[in-house]
Design a protein that fits this description.
The chain is mostly helical. The chain has one domain. It has 6 helices and no strands.
Amino acid sequence: MKKQLPLALVGAALSMTVLACAQSDPALKRSEEAAAKLPNMTEAEMALVRERCTACHNFAKVDKEIRKGASKDDWWAIVDDMAGRRGSPIRQSEIEPLAIALDKLTSALKPQ
């Protein structure tokens, strides 16, 4: 039981750090605002994007791929590569849902 408390504190601190980073990242804010307007994108999908991508990157890196118009297949390859890296927070079961969510954002945000 003693080991669970420190892990809970670490988890809470990590969540607060991710939230603080998200609030100060204009690219992430732009994507969150767009996601809120997408009828086919859930808050859970945006949370997955936010939590997994910003665990290692500033969201501007993701936004750069969005602006390039990455396809669903592009996103799948990118996410699969990230999931295969040591220490990645992305689970194998999250590759497809994350690629789908990123594709939805790309469709909404890429330049026309």
